[in-house]
């Protein structure tokens, strides 16, 4: 074997090693916080004060771990909070998906004078933090008069799901600009010959959209739904703005658990275990959902070209 061939193989091996190290290292950085919380939640009281125990418990017992999780779940009112959060996230995600799909399709397929200008404003919403319009949003739904159509002082919608419903259906909810951008880019990349063939067969714009365009956009629809669901599940800012902190939702019950088991009134190690157990319960539905839908999620990411 010539020296050139040896050098080529060595270079290929080196690059594969570096690339694999970077991929595994990045994956570990991303996954490590979740692994840490799960392992800490498995610890027993004796593990907390055992200097030889770092992350892996020495007294692993499924029954003991189940009792610990049940105790934390009862403190968090987990089932009630889970069902309330699930219903809210499904409602918001479904409405966001409908509005983003329709708006994105309109930007991609219907040409009008201010199309580019309006789409530029949509993209601009991605860089505007929600804290900037916090007070107008609160006052709008605290004294909601439907843009002057109802008599003053209007209705108080704070503490209800109506603010989420109105913002998601009108395409003005949290991160809706990104979802509209994703749907617009996808529909713009689909061949116009599909629509033209449907129009020749006598289909209208709505029927063409439902029968022709939507079936080809299913992976992208799943991506938008998952993004919206996850962001709504993790959101505390707008949820605390529109809903009262006494509401039985997982972000609020987890926050109350963290505040109840503080480091001033409880041993630091014990409070850490309780907090991490609550965080694992909070994250578990998202991990399970991603486990079932990850194939469609990856496919949708590849089609939309989202990076970073």
Task: Please describe what this structure looks like.
This protein is mostly helical. It folds into two domains: 1-42; 60-304, MetI-like fold (Orthogonal Bundle). 71% of the residues lie in helices and 0% in strands.
Task: Set out the fold topology.
Layout: H1 3-41, H2 45-48, H3 62-75, H4 78-109, H5 115-124, H6 134-142, H7 162-169, H8 176-189, H9 192-200, H10 205-213, H11 218-234, H12 237-242, H13 250-260, H14 268-304
Helix pairs in contact: 1-14, 3-14, 4-7, 4-8, 4-11, 5-8, 8-11, 9-10, 11-14, 13-14
| Beta strands, count | 0
Count of separate DSSP helical elements: 14
Radius of gyration: 25 Å
Q: Main β-sheet: number of strands, strand sense, barrel status?
A: none
Task: Report the order of strands and helices.
Answer: HHHHHHHHHHHHHH
CATH topology of the largest domain: MetI-like fold
Beta-strand percent range: under 5%
The total tally of domains equals 2
* Share of residues in helices: over 70%
CATH architecture of the largest domain: Orthogonal Bundle
- Cα(first) to Cα(last) distance is 42 Å
Assign the CATH superfamily of the largest domain: MetI-like
Shape: flat
Which regions contain 5 or more consecutive residues with pLDDT less than 50?
Answer: none
